[in-house]
Amino acid sequence: MWVCTALSGARTPAQLRRVLLLASRHCGPAAASFSASAEPSRVRALVYGHHGDPAKVVELKNLELAAVGGSDVHVKMLAAPINPSDINMIQGNYGLLPKLPAVGGNEGVGQVVAVGSSVTGVKPGDWVIPANAGLGTWRTEAVFSEEVLVGVPKDIPLPSAATLSVNPCTAYRMLVDFEQLQPGDCVIQNASNSGVGQAVIQIAAALGLRTINVVRDRPDIQKLTERLKNLGADHVITEEEIRKHEMKNFLKDVPQPRLALNCVGGKSSTELLRHLAPGGTMVTYGGMAKQPVIASVGLLIFKDLKLRGFWLSQWKKDHSPGAMP
Ligand SMILES: NC(=O)c1ccc[n+]([C@@H]2O[C@H](COP(=O)([O-])OP(=O)(O)OC[C@H]3O[C@@H](n4cnc5c(N)ncnc54)[C@H](OP(=O)(O)O)[C@@H]3O)[C@@H](O)[C@H]2O)c1
């Protein structure tokens, strides 16, 4: 989900759900203080004090800005999206939950306003994004510790910078970490129009990989097909079409995919498995249908398919500089 309105102009959580938040974390080191002030302050934030339905538990509050210490960076948020994981985190259904109360939002881009005396990696004017999930980006500004930020170039579009840290990284890791794919090899995925799906299409095309992209049917399917093909998709197929027997003929010119990327679960993931090459891998990274992955015994025995999972937060933890080998 992609939101876009100015936080400063919004009045209610409902309005705020529809926007690209022009905003700015809690749950990390040196964030803005959480005492919701009685006086209007400069910092406005979308805060939740307990888990539940985001429309009911998220409130627009004024926060006090912490003083900028030696290793701190004062950041003015420029843009922040609403991702499914942001919603899951507020609901309390996510693998990583912040200490409450918390500011919502895991992704975004901000501009450095001021830095503490020992900060060396960024300077005022630079653009920064969160290094990890849980920064609480739905706020106008904040004071963060330098170590939780990563500098990014300022010559990329703002929406791209605001959505750089999760979906494209997830897409890239899944494409390179599970199967040794060569140019010309093929990848199949569902929810191909999702943020992750679109990143998969573009990165796969850049790596010379072909993609079979499954989407849900809709009245303007042609428009969506065209848009995904413009991004580099080779085939765009609906969930209904992929279940048809004739699909085998349609895909006969494409090598059988050795990698499947599953964002949905349920029947959709069973179909991906059916089209995988013997010995291939299906990586599950999302469960949009809220249904379990069902793999037929025959496919597991006779095709020796591998079922794996991926979570970017765990990957980052495992690959952080201090992580144990
Ligand atoms: N594991 C990780 O590290 C990781 C990283 C990033 C994202 N994710 C997960 O990946 C998923 C997608 O994230 P995103 O930011 O790319 O999402 P997004 O851009 O909001 O797209 C959501 C996608 O899910 C589809 N969808 C929604 N409800 C569905 C249903 N009931 N059945 C089938 N498809 C459904 C949508 O299709 P329609 O257009 O047809 O509605 C759309 O393609 C989320 O579950 C997110 O938590 C995981």
From TrEMBL:
What is the protein's major site of localization?
mitochondrion
One GO term in the molecular function aspect is:
enoyl-[acyl-carrier-protein] reductase (NADPH) activity
Pfam families, per database record: ADH_N (PF08240), ADH_zinc_N (PF00107)
Residue ranges the record marks as coiled coil = none
What InterPro entries does the record point to? Answer: ADH-like_C, ADH-like_N, ER, GroES-like_sf, Mito_Enoyl-ACP_Reductase, NAD(P)-bd_dom_sf
Reaction(s) catalysed by this chain, per the record, are: (2E)-octenoyl-[ACP] + NADPH + H(+) = octanoyl-[ACP] + NADP(+); (2E)-tetradecenoyl-[ACP] + NADPH + H(+) = tetradecanoyl-[ACP] + NADP(+); (2E)-dodecenoyl-[ACP] + NADPH + H(+) = dodecanoyl-[ACP] + NADP(+); (2E)-decenoyl-[ACP] + NADPH + H(+) = decanoyl-[ACP] + NADP(+)
What functional role does this protein have?
Answer: Catalyzes the NADPH-dependent reduction of trans-2-enoyl thioesters in mitochondrial fatty acid synthesis (fatty acid synthesis type II). Fatty acid chain elongation in mitochondria uses acyl carrier protein (ACP) as an acyl group carrier, but the enzyme accepts both ACP and CoA thioesters as substrates in vitro. Displays a preference for medium-chain over short- and long-chain substrates. May provide the octanoyl chain used for lipoic acid biosynthesis, regulating protein lipoylation and mitochondrial respiratory activity particularly in Purkinje cells.
What name goes with this protein? Enoyl-[acyl-carrier-protein] reductase, mitochondrial
In its UniProt entry, the species of origin is given as: Camelus ferus (Wild bactrian camel)
